[in-house]
Amino acid sequence: MKVFKGEVTSDGCPQDELNACLKTGVIQNLVQSLAHVTDPKHLALVMALIPTHF
């Protein structure tokens, strides 16, 4: 889970980063986004676990 804790992330606005992650779909070299939390106080992205062999 990636929790956005500020008004600005390294990639810009948290909401924009969350939207971009959700719109990418399944790409082999990216961790898959599964869901998101939209509570205004707790914006977060739920992602698939990275396999232990990485």
Characterise this structure:
With 54 residues, this protein is an alpha+beta fold. It has one domain. It is 19% helix and 20% strand. The protein is built from 1 helix and 3 strands. It has a 3-stranded antiparallel β-sheet with strand order 1-3-2, covered by helices on one side. A hairpin with a 6-residue loop joins β2 and β3. The longest helix has 10 residues. It starts with a strand and ends in a 7-residue tail after the last strand. The mean pLDDT is 85.
List the helices and strands and how they pair.
Elements: E1 2-3, H1 14-23, E2 33-37, E3 44-47
Antiparallel strand pairs: 1-3, 2-3
Biggest sheet record: 3 strands, antiparallel
Q: What is the tally of helical segments?
A: 1
Structural class: alpha+beta
Number of domains: 1
Oligomer: single chain
Shape summary: globular
Helix content: 10-25%
Question: Rounded to an integer, what's the Rg over CA atoms?
Answer: 12 Å
Task: Tell me what portion of residues adopts beta-strand conformation.
Answer: 15-25%
pLDDT averaged residue by residue: 85
- Report how far the terminal alpha carbons are from each other: 18 Å
N-to-C SSE string, H for helix and E for strand: EHEE
The neighbouring-strand order within the major sheet is 1-3-2
Q: Tell me the number of strands.
A: 3
Uncertain segments are none
Kindly summarize this structure in a few lines:
The protein has one helix spanning 14-23, and strands at 2-3, 33-37, 44-47. With 54 residues, the protein is an alpha+beta fold.
